[in-house]
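Please annotate this fold before class:
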Amino acid sequence: MSFGPPQGGGGMDMVPDMVKQFVVYFYRHIRERNMREIQTMYDVSFVKLSERFFKQTPWPPVEAISHLVEDDHVFCMLYKEMYYRHLYAIQQPSLEARCESWANYTALFGVIIHGNVNMQLPNGWLWDMIDEFVYQFQNFAQYRGKLSMKSEAEIQALREVSLSEENAVWPVVGVLNYLQALVDKSHIADDLRAPGGAAQLKATNGFNQSQSNVLRMLGYFSLVGLQRVHALVGDYNGAMKAIAPLNLFETKTLLTQNIVGAHISLYYYGGFCYLMERRYLDAARVFNHILSFIDRVKGFHQRSAQYEQILKKNEQMFALLAITAALCPASLADLNETVLNLLQDKYGEKRQRMVLGDTGVYDELFSYACPKFITASPPNFDAPGVNTSQEAYRLQLKMFLALLHLQKDLPTLKQFLKLYTSISLPKLAGLMSMDISTLRAQLMLLKSTSMVKTWNGKGDATEGEFLPAADVVFTIDIDSNTGEEMVTVSESKPARRQDDFLAQHIVKFNQIMRDLAAPPPEQPPAAVPSTRGVPAY
């Protein structure tokens, strides 16, 4: 379906001279592979020009600037990639713009996958391409589900571009196929699995003077993109399998640490997937790492356009960590002192309410912190009065609350068990106001939920073994004197890991010693009191 040229900010005569110069020099530096200038023009100049000339309007359409760059096909696609990203940031794009952006991404990725691209681009831009590609897919799925807000003509146009067998726009299978093709064609998974491959990639930042970094790094970031797409449709195991070459627990070799947005995305979706798979210890370790990372680096990004997004994700992950700690108190042992204190300050009271079984708090925090889930299939266009944009979210929330309902009696059961070292089954059943068979089933449920699958240092992020993670340990035996079934209880107090605590205090101690050893600052000479205007006595 053709819509003509993209919506833009004017014709050729409307392009400011500074914008023309930007395009000309940007094109020249890309051809010359002048990475320093490309980085500056992408990170600084484009942002400043957007703020000055295009704060509320799109950049000029590609037709208005193509003659300035010799109608270079690849550069024009790169320009349109930035054009549509800016368009999405300032306004709600039309269906035509959404379709044109999809066509541009598929054309650009097609050239990169099947062609011979020899340019060098900043890793930040390559991550932004993948991140925006997935975002626009997610945005289109939500836009498509809001049929009650659209006219009959809009619904018909949406039907055509969604149900077309050959020309469908933003189909979930198409998005996954392009991301997977970038991974496969770049051979990035093989590179990362090779001995020392991940460390070498990080050491060189993905650059090689003799060849382009574009395909290789797009393949690397596509691993994170695949993880996100799978998580958005509720395929949590598929999401973790997608990042198998990227080990979340071997952080020293992760190149994503150099790209803050990519690193946060990798760990946000990784932690959320672990939470939904009930791998609470792994979820806590993942959130602990990324929250510590954000605490260290957020000060360097206060003037960045992504600063607000960093802070939002930080708060969301603290909410998810509070849920994790409430469902599995033993996971608190894996948190460092800084994260533990911040968690207590932000969600101490709500976490305690969740521990006692308050599903309303679980609902509130899950709704605030979960991803914006999407429905992979198109809506029923014959029922335009129905909005389906929230269907996927409601389904995931229902599944999460169903788990809590299954365990609704466990908080009370644990509270009673903590009061005794041993108690007969009939007495405990009386306290719980349930029959013995139901109590026995609840005890078995508590026992089974106390074993948590945890990564053990072998295999990828989906591997692991079941380890005990209980805050109450009990056994059921027969009392030899009375013949009654007895529950023998021992409260589990997992040892806290002290390495982070000691390391942080060593750093603080060294800083104090340096401050004490430093010479005192020179004091300015005392000012001589002026006698001007002072009466003599």
About this structure: DSSP finds 21 helices and five strands in the chain. The beta strands are 422-424, 451-454, 465-468, 472-478, 485-491. Residues 1-10, 524-537 have pLDDT under 50 and may be disordered.
